[in-house]
Amino acid sequence: MNPAPSIVFFTTASGAGYGLLFWLGVLRPLGWGGGAASSLGATAVVLALALVTAGLLSSLAHLGNPQRAWRALSQWRSSWLSREGVAAVLTYPPALLFLLALWFGWPAVAAVAGPLAAAGAAATIYCTAMIYASIKPVRQWRHPLVVPGYFAMAAFSGAALLAALAAGWDAGRLLPVPAALAALGGLAAIGLKFAYWRAVDAGMPGPTRESATGLGAIGRVRPLDPPHTEQNYLLREMGFRVARKHAARLRQIALWAGFAAPAVLALLALAGAPAAPLLSLGALLALLGVLVERWLMFAEATHTVMLYYR
Amino acid sequence: MTSLPDRPAGAKKLGLVIDLDTCVGCQACATNCKEWNASGHSAPLPDFKPYSAGAEGVWFNRVHSYEAGEGEQGRTVHFPRSCLHCETPACVTVCPTGASYKRAEDGIVLVNAETCIGCGLCAWACPYGAREMDEDSGVMKKCTLCIDRIYNETIPEAQRQPACVITCPTRARHFGDLGDPDSAVSQLVARRGGQDLMPELGYGPVNKYLQPRERSSALTEAKPVEDAPTPMDIPNPLLRWMDRVLSR
Amino acid sequence: MPEAPTPSHAFATPTPNDDPQVQYSPPVGDAVKTTTCYMCACRCGIKVHLKDGRVRYIEGNPDHPVNRGVLCGKGSAGIMTQYSPARLQAPLLRVGERGSGEFKEISWAEALDTATGWLRRVRETDPKRLAFFTGRDQSQSLTGFWAAQFGTPNFAAHGGFCSVNMAAGGLYSIGGSFWEFGEPDWDRTRLFLMFGVAEDHDSNPVKLGLSKLKERGAKFVSVNPVRTGYSAIADEWVGIRPGTDGLLVLALVHELLRADRVDLDFLARYTNATWLIVRDPGGADDGLAARDEAGKPLAWDRERGAVDAALPDLSPVLAGEFTLPDGRRVRPVFHLMAERYLGAEYAPEAVAERCGVPAERIRRLAAEIAAVAFEQPVVVEQPWTDTYGRGHERMVGRPVSFHAMRGISAHSNGFHTCRALHLLQMLLGAVDTPGSWRYKSPFPRPIPPAPGPAGKGAKPNTPLAGNILSFPHGPDDLLVDEAGGPLRIDKAFSWEAPLGLHGMMHTVIGNAGAGDPYPIDTLFMFMANMAWNSAMNPGETTRVLTEKRADGEYVIPHVIYSDAYFSETVPYADLILPDTTYLERWDCISILDRPIGSPHGAGDAIRQPVIKPDRDVRPFQDVLIELGARLGLPAFVREDGSPRYKDYPDYITNHERMPGVGPLAGFRGADGSKKGAGEPNPDQLKRYVENGCFWRDHLPPEQGFFKYANKDYLEQSKAMGLMGKSEQIVLQIWSEPLQKFRLAAEGHGAVQPPDRLRERVRTYCDPLPFWYAPLEHGGQDLAHFPISAVTQRPMAHYHSWGSMNAWLRQIHGSNRLYMARSKAREMGLGEDDWVWVESRAGRLKCQLRLMEGVNPDTVWTWNAIGKRAGTWGLTEDSPESTKGFLLNHVISEWLPAQEGFRQANSDPVTGQAAWYDLRVRIERALPEEAGLTDPHPAALRAPPHMPERPAVLRYNANARAGGEARP
After folding, report:
1. Pick from C391, C424, C442: which residue ends a domain?
2. Is the pTM of this model over 0.90?
3. Which first-to-last residue range defines the signal peptide (chain C) (predicted)?
4. ipTM of model
């Protein structure tokens, strides 16, 4: 599948934003980040909403008729994309309320709005993941680890961002929780993606050229000539292919530079190393890692329509 | 709207039956579809860079060719591919706006060009590659089963069929109600064992494909006449005709 | 032609309320007109729906006898041919060097003045210095007539490089041929064998026919090196080596004779198998039929000895040697024929390896053919009367039918291969019987049709009497001078191609360039892309077109070209006469030329203009008629010198070739009630238009079969002016005209071949079909060029007519070289590799595609997809010129070098261009050579004021006129 930059950026940025919002929405009512650090919370929510909004705007660029995007909110009964839109929209009021509560110091409001915003963030991530996980023609997306993967990426990148922010407040006193979450998130990301890639590489059952044409009874089916000698929308959209070697290198980059390194950096920060630079670097690497992972998520996905082509 | 309509068993299911045993890959269905629909329900069907490198356009029907099996025993098969108007079309249910819909009255899957946002998700959801993005107007288009022909009262009744069917020079395409077990197309499917494409995905395609028939190596049980005299056996094989009495 | 199946039932229109998005009954357009398609040569009837003067939709005309409502991929894309930006806009006069593409637009008055000036000088001095050749032209009855009126013998259409072998082989054997002159009895045949047919003729009728076979479960065998298209749906594919079909057919003949599975009754009644052939080696009558005083061929009657072979009560003896009362020794044709084909060289074992078909398969095919022919006869309960005047209660037929085309025709042994196929048909008794191959009226014709070709004694300002392209009966009819040298520029009807019935367009430019046999002044071409895909060796052709003499004048001083599109040939002409598209003109698919007859009756058709040209262009035929009048050609002016015809429609209506016989056979007579012969009808075209732009006769059922000996049919044909006499047409196993050429080569007769050609004429003018290796293979090291290379025409392109069409060029924008996967493995080549294809004539670079369904010793590609950069309204980066290629670049127009003279790479009997004899070697290109085809000649410059090319084409006839949808 074509890793359209607008979509790759959208899911990375909004995933990180929702991850950040989720952690804050959960941690703040639990007492984390109060008092002197309350401006940290507000800053984090602003960053989260900025990432989410940038991502959503980026996703509009993918549409043929963005001015009609509002229509996408109508079909929540059947469409995960519509549900994602609805969830995203519904997450804004509690998130903004949460921001106000943090900004003006209304702990009671924050205790309600935070979890609501966190729930909204989690729901949106779930809807996003389900858009992909429900596409039957793409076997790599139908894998059971896809949804956990989206959650893990959001949680990991959100935690890494939160840890990096926390390093700049209150002399790092708030750092341990998000740093630990980032480290755990990194490990979870490694584990999940490792398992996912292994499963994907092992081959997955699905339609074949023989079942796509119904010609299997005759023998092995090979394409002879395509309908048209040049490209078309489907080939550009579904026909993207990444070289195995290239993909393997990117996987290593994602696993080690994108997931392991931030986890190690977080552990180092927990162990007392200079937190701000380490965790800032960790957050950047985590975002990069998720970006690479998301790119691969498309680039390595194969669509059944390509069975009809060479 | 993108929830599927309630369609009772036996509801009308208009669709195509495509005979791969007879299709010679002439592309008539593809270009006749293109010319009808260029000015039809989903008009236009734009072509990009039409006179230079990278020419590509919107086509509702594309004809592939394949080889199945090896060597001289194998087959070359021409394979027209278009929307199968599935019974459970995920292209409809994934649509966030309701632009994609399956008609309750005949099962045809259509796109409302007024409300489509051009997100492309339906194309992802279609395993068969039936969705065609019009990147000029930013909306998804697709085979309409020539909805502006098949009911068109300004067209003679015998011609009220999809353009691809009416033009097919080998009569390899058939149109009708596959929901009616007594219809000509249903009977044809039953007789020839018509198949679904990618049945394992469970989309319930309405269009059926008739596979190339078994080829017996000989039509008759004709055996070479091994025991007939050969020129080597008799000095003059022409002798046998010398005395043959013939008349006009 | 089978009737089209009845479409399935229509459905009641749902109420609009159900789905407000859908407009169920929009009118298709605001007008609909019938005419005849010209996206290929198939001549299907079409209905063109118009909206605001633009084409909304083109569909097959359900009432039309050719296509019965269906329309192929090309015909359905006619809109984009109509609106192509490659359409020429106005007359052009060359202002730069030839090939530079520098033209200025001129008025039609200036264009016609210029052409008239050049042509008048030629006609006043030496009319043969005009070479007038038309390409994919369907108006040869006009163009040929015009050339004869001009007085030049140098006229032909493209048949010489297309299918003259098929036409000549058929017309000299059975008085008809495949495609235009006959077709299988699709409704009754049980076994259908197709040889060497890709998509070529006859496109939609063959497709309709194949679907009939499928419906009925008849068996379809395709003999073809490549398994695509029709061959893909064959019940049996015989992947033969190119050029060996004749050998396979004669091995089948061998088997049928060996097993005595031939229809002796049929042979005795309807063929010349009974004729007695004189055995007089070295004598002037050797190999000719023994005849009585009245010139009637003799047969040996069991009781009476030598008698008139046409006696109704003949009891013929088919084998043996006899002595005539005058002492001459004779043998029946059947004897000579059987003797030859029972020879060991035609045994299946002997041919198997060469053909690439195992011997037991050949035997099985023969057995199967015989079983169907003789054990499953088809009976039509229809009495009929033969030419002996005897009534038959029913029509009994042999349901084995054949069709063959280019794959057979385009070889230097193609004429004899076609003859071999017709011999096979005759042996089976499967000619125009129920279930077999059938003639399309007005065929059969006498064998050969009379008279010989016109062209002798061309004089200034004098028309030639007769048809330029006609039928030699022997050496006396050849167009040669006293030394045996050719009179025609292309050497057709000379000793190099005695039966060059369709001319040899592929040699014209080369011969003119070499002044062999003489230089010419003006080359006038219509719709023939001779600077590219219509030429063997286009590089050499363009070299000749741009070559200058010492005095600075071009070797061919004037080139006039008429075409509707900016083809590769346009920049090489001096004067361009832009033609209309097929939707903008009147045309005539004439009974005098290549009509649309069917086994059910004669027929012809017209085109009518359905839209007005939006450019300064004129129909070529109108222009030709005006030029004829300006030049004062007698048939084109009245007594007072004023133009006889206003335009082409006027000519179609009022021209009479013979009294009562004109271009169209339908609706003749003052009131339109006559068919075939009748005085001109001023409303004839109107009547055609009212009838869907065609006319069709319907034969009564008793005339449907055995037309060569069907008394009623032959008499009716004569009455309609379709035939000169109503005698039985005796099918010719033994061809006397060929034997006459052979006798000349042996020194008999006044008209003698030059010595250098004697052996060639003697060898190839064999009265019985035989197989020989393609001539091109003789003079080269086949081990060095081990692979045969052929082309096929794709179903979605008609030669070069596809690349200017925005839709069709998406289907075939470039072409690959297809090779058997097994062969590639053997050679270490892989999918998508770039390779060099080298022949004795040159080399080219292209990209490979591997497949299973191709003879392992053969490679092939689609014909004419490759285009020269800059042409056909395409940008220079188009895949047609960067990845597409022409096999023509490695095909030589000459046979391998011979001593002192050169010979066309053609069939030695007919002059048919031997495109498919090509042998090549293939080598992998270096990695840095990949990506661009070679040769890649410099881009050609477009003429001035060609239309803009839109970046996005949004064709929608329903968009408001003048709106953005206009392409």
Report:
1. C442
2. yes
3. none
4. 0.96
